[in-house]
Amino acid sequence: MAKRKREQQPQETASEGLLPQKKFYRQRAHANPFSDHSLDYPESPRAIDWAPHYPAFAASGKVPEFADFPDTLMLGLEIRVQVSQYVQDRITALRVTNATQSSDSTPGFQNVSIVRANAMKFLPNYFTKHSLSALFFLFPDPHFKSRKHKARIISPTLLAEYAYVLRPGGIVYTITDVRDLHEWMKEHLTNFPLFEPVDEDSLRKEGKGPIIDAVYHSTEEGKKLSMQQAVLKTFPDAQATYRFTNRNKATLFSRQCAERFRTAVSHFSFLALTQEEREWLQKACPFLEPSYLEFLSGFRYKPEQVDIQFVPADDQGDDTKGVSGQIYITITGPWVEAIMWEVPLMACLSETYFQTVDKDWDYEGQADLAFEKGKTLLSHGCAFSEFGTRRRRSYRTQEIVVENLVKASEVTKGPGRLTGTSNVHLARLYDLEPIGTIAHEWFMGVAALRGYENANAKALKLWEEVYESSGTALIALTDTFTTGAFFREFTEDGPRAQRWTGLRQDSGDPFTFGPRVKEVYESLGIDPATKLLVYSDSLSTEKAVKIREQCTSLGLAKASFGIGTHFTNDFKSLSSNRQQKSKALNIVIKLAQVNDKPCIKLSDDLTKTTGDKATVDYVIDLYHLPKS
Fold first, then answer.
1. How many other CB atoms are found less than 10 A from the CB of residue 320?
2. Where is each Nicotinate/nicotinamide phosphoribosyltransferase domain found (predicted)?
3. What is the DSSP letter of 8?
4. For labeling, which of 155, 157, 217, 422 is most exposed (least CB within 10 Å)?
């Protein structure tokens, strides 16, 4: 395979919009840090010309600080030839692309660069004393064998150098997926006299925390995996577009929030399914076929598929740009890839917003609150799952919630039960069942590709073709084109209604849904007590208990509840002395088109209607629905 020699200075030669592909940059995973690899090093930091690395900042005299985007410069040091070449080519391409898409005076990615270097031997050659504000060690070589531990990048000798280049108060961040290496780094940093543990909560509140938490822990909901598999098998070549909507236009984002969010999204490409995670999925989700798990192992997020725009609400002209405004997000790419962006993007944006814009809150009382909610649901006989990934306040919030729901389930005696979580990552950590059903986008995409007439029946048929023999529960979502339209098609095929395990309610009045479901099943000669009902629309603990009581009186014994924002974004503002709610973001990302055909959702709540207006009107007429 042909390889290119690494140019020492970055050259802006990438074609506009053309990002490098990793498959052309093959490289051994390990490199010998004790070999100089014939690399050239500056005699001292004063000998370095940073202008070719940061041309947009050449006149400012700035030097790299490894700090938060976009205010200071960041530099990567990588010893491997092809890896450093790939990163440099990617930075160059992103600079060109961003320059054509951004209206900012300094487009994105101008403050990042990379040098091929051996940081273990020549770090002080690049940086003066106390010149860096942070150091990031991202998945360093674990050097598993004991005789190789001396080559680990965290060691007492090297820590002295890191302390030399870091300014007082500077932060060291370490990331690894090897537990032994994590413990090694933690122990050596703790024992070194010039470093002390950091309160990450305080860092996040100050905007200095590891924003990549929002990336590395924004794992997919269970339903995303099952839907990606269905798309892979049914529509592998379809092209899709998703769009973000902020339903509450009074909620404004800051420019800082938008830039941090954009930077976080650029890190998604580093995510990959580990072998340990794959083995766990094989056991926990037997409906995921080996061929799909192989596909998932090779899947990588492509940040170039995500366009993020910040539009100021108070733009004062070219010289004074507004600091508050709206964020617009469009995701475009193969449906089988684009489908995976919705959940982590929403979770990442929410966490970034509450780090940068609304900081009038803290974690006090969150553990007790989640524990008491769990006890209430369990003692009232509710079967429930945690559904709060996409609109959570932060990853830490969701982890607190899941941990304390588990604790509540262990100590509360009653007929209720915690059935699982939609967050696959947390399901693995807490030994829970990963929960997922079909989402609206499946019905929306099928309707656009196969026609809106009898779209519900078409979507159910295709889903059955993928999962009928898998043994997984078949739970139909009823409200994509209104529940009335769904039931008209559902009742036309009694055997299908019998095959499907149950139904999910996600909009409209939940207290009219149960009686209606009972009537539908009884009209088909099906015992409604044998069918599962899942309620998931803006539930609170109190509402779930009341619905459970109604279902019991109706003989609907298998009611279940998917509770999201009420679990993972239930906070009170500090400025009100915890008397007023700190509101969650009201945001969605919906499928807008597939193969250039518009996708729409009507729902049983008119405020949730999304999509092309002409198509909305057409479907309303097709299904003989009342117009608003």
1. 10
2. 382-626
3. S
4. 157
What is the rounded distance in angstroms from the CA atom of residue 169 to the CA atom of residue 174? 16
pTM for the model: 0.73
Which two three-digit tokens encode residue 478? 């009823």
Q: How many helices (H) and strands (E) does the chain have?
A: 23, 18
DSSP reduced 3-state for 598: strand
DSSP letter at 478?
-
Using alpha carbons, select from 186, 205, 206 the residue that is nearest to residue 196. Answer: 186
**Residue in this structure with the two tokens 């940081």, named with its chain if needed:** 119
Match 């941090």 to its residue by tokens.
260
Which residue ranges make up each domain of the chain?
A: 22-204, 216-358+583-597
22-204 and 216-358+583-597 have identical folds: no
In 424-567, beta strands by DSSP E: 475-477, 502-505, 532-535, 558-563
Residue 273 structure tokens? 């399914």
Q: Which top CATH class is 216-358+583-597?
A: alpha beta
Question: Looking at residue 241, what DSSP letter applies?
Answer: E
Two structure tokens written together for 38:
């014939």
Question: Which amino acid would we find at residue 32?
Answer: N
The string of pLDDT tens digits covering residues 237-257 is 999 999 999 999 999 999 999
Neighbours of 587 (CB within 10 A): 20
CA angle 36, 38, 44 (to 5 degrees): 75
Q: Find out whether 350 and 584 touch, Cβ atoms under 8 Å.
A: yes
Task: Supply 567's token pair.
Answer: 């679990």
* Residue pLDDT, tens place only, 547-600: 999 999 999 999 999 999 999 999 999 999 999 999 999 999 999 999 999 999
Whole-number Å distance between alpha carbons of 435 and 154: 39
Question: What fold is seen in the domain 22-204?
Answer: Rossmann fold (3.40.50)
Closest alpha carbon to 441 in 618, 235, 242: 242
Q: 106 and 128 in contact (C-beta within 8 Å)?
A: no
CA distances from 113 to 45, 52, 65, 424, 623 (A): 16, 9, 12, 34, 56
